[in-house]
Structure formats: structure tokens, C-alpha cells
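User: Can you write out an input/output pair for a complex, sequences first and structure second?

Assistant: Here is one pair. Inputs:
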Amino acid sequence: MRRLVGFIVDNRDWFFLTFSVALSLLLLSNNESPDVQILRGKVNSVLSVIYAPGNWVQGIGTLREENDVLRAKAVQLSLLNSEMLQYKTENERLKAMLDYKESVGMFLLPTRVVSTGLSPLMKVVNINVGSQQDVRPNLAVVSVDGVVGKTVSVGPTTTVVQLMTDYSFRLSVKMEKSGTIGIMRWREGDVFEVWEIPKATGIEVGERIVTSGYSDIFPPNLAVGYVTGTIDQPEMLHKVAVSKANTDFTTLGHLFVIGGE
Amino acid sequence: MANRVVPFLNGLAVLFLQMILSDFLTIRGIRPDFILIFVVYLSLRWGSLTGVVAGFTLGLVEDILSAGSLMGLAPLTKSLTGFLVGRLQGRYIRMSPVTFHAAWVGIMMAHFFIFIYVNYQSVFETNSSIFWKTYIFSAVYTFIFIGMFQVIKPLSTIKPPAN
């Protein structure tokens, strides 16, 4: 027994390594566990205080620029709004004619990015709303420009948002003109690809890409990006639309969480 | 007692540094990995055991706070790095400088390869050039910072504590 204990003590670094590797692999295999998600949510809520000074400094730096952009955007939106009101009236009349069922109501919860995590790869951001504001996992998150991502771990006052730029993120999207459905996945920088597009479908450069609505998370017609080119090779069964995102992921600040009422 | 407290406090400081500076230093979604740099320095000073414990603990905190889709990956790669770099403790005088530096650089490159490969395995299959670009960029970005730290405290000057 003493020899065994002596052996363990002499090789304790190997034992610790084996234990660490085993525990890490166990964690990796339990990624979807609700307990792990809850733990992450709670820890992020507690530690969000640490990010406050950094956010404050960043906020001051970008405030003026942000203000100018928002002012310009407000003018654009007011112009767009008047146009939309016309369309709304027309749409309501047409819907009534078709006996169209009213879609489920949505709420928009304004929020702000408090941190972008610690990982060397930026795939998530933390936002300053949580379960206290009725946020739950798998809600769509958007900016004024378009889709940003979805909520994954929810704490009492903060929520982790998986960004569209995460390579494991997939989104069902639709080409606005042709109505073709495809699956969006990120490529690099601000470029993403839309896969599973039938070869016969014509796609125009500049065509807007929106959410298809074939998802429990994302409502239809949220702006995602626009087409910049296509990949159509003889050996491929489908064509791929190379696209650019509407959202600038390097300057995420104010976001909205979309949820059902 | 101080032997335990000082590395612990340094670890907290590095976590804080990573939290505060990450946002400012992000380029195309990639940031320098200060935690890894700390694990390398700590392991060379205190050895494999401390390296494994620090790598695992800090990696776990990193994963909890980052909430990516792969909880457990950072503790895995960082504890392996801590262990392997810890094996180089006190060997600079017995090894050729080239071998010593090639060893820790190789261990860090292996760390980045595992980390990026697990994260981007689908990209590796579909578009390997993006994978390699991401791998090289994220490794080089951290190496730039470890290079700066080398000016202040070269890894070759780190010696095990005197008993």
C-alpha cells in the first residue's frame, strides 16, 4: 500500500494530467447538458460587473460616431416608415381578402453587448438581459442591420448569444426574389455561404437574403445579407451562393432579442 | 504559502487582463490567448503539476465565460500544454537553445492545432484553406504577444524555485 501511495506521489503530475484530460473529455461529451448551460449563465451574470469599466471606456469612444450613425438611420427609417405604412394598409386589405391568419405576435427586447467572452475565437457575446426579462434559450437576436445570432445560455441578468459567425451556426434562409430556400453557414470575415440551392435556380448578384421562417427560432423575412457571387461546379449537386452579411460583427453594440409574446 | 498564493493571484490578474483587453484586441474574431501565455510561463517556473492544474482551472474558467459550443476543450488543451511545457522546466541549461525554443513553440502550435481543429472541423473538411488561415493567424497573433513578453522576461531565464 505504501509503495502504491509512493508511486502515486512520485508521478502525481501524470495522475493530475490523466484526471484533467478525463474530466475535460467528460465535459466535452456533456456540452448540451442543461446544468452546464445554467452554470454558464449564472457565472456570466455575476462576472458581468467586471466588464463594466471596459464597456464604459468603449462606450465613450464610440458614442459620437454611434450618435451620427443613429441620427442618419433615424431619418432613413422615418422615410421608410411612411412607405411601410402604405404597404401595411395594402397588406392588411389583401390579407383580409385571403382570410390570412394573423401571425403570432413578437416582442423586441432592446439590449447591449457587455462582453465577448474569453475564448481566443470570438463566437459569442454576452448581453445585459436575462431570465429576469423573460429571455430564454433559442431566441433570435438581431441588430438594426439584420440577424446577429441566437441566445444559448441564460443567466438572471445576462445571456450568451451564439453569433452567426460561429462555424457551427446554421440558419435556414430564403432568396428574396426567387424564394429559394437554402442553409446559411459562415465562411470567413463578413462572408457567408448559402448551401443547398437547386442548380436550376437563377440567383442575381445583389439579391437580398432573408430568414425563411422554417425555424422555431427565427421569424421570417429578417434581413441576413445579400448575394455577392455563386459557386456552381459540375461535380456539385447544388449551387452555393457566396454572400455578405448585413451586420458588422466587429462593432456589435445595441441588439434586440426577438421572442414570442 | 507564498509559493501558492502568488501564482494564484497572477492567474486572477491574467484572467482579468484577458477579460478587459480581449474586446480591444480582437481582429477578425480572433484574439491573443493571454491565458495560454501565462500557463507556459507558470509551467516553466513551477513544473508539470502546476502547469496541469493551472491549465485545467484557467481553461475551465475560460470556457464557462466564453460559453462557446465546446465546453471542456480549453481545459483539455491547456492542461496538456501545461504538462508538456512543465517537462521543459530547468532544461534550458541541459538542452541546446534551439531545441528548447523549438519545443515550447511546437507545444503551443500543437495546442492551437487541436483547439482550432476541434472548433473548425467542418471547415477543415469543406474548405481547408480557411482552416489553415485561421490556425496560422490565431497562433501568430498569440506568438506576437509572447514575443513581447520575451523581451521583458525571456523564457530561457525562468528557473525552478530554489528549495
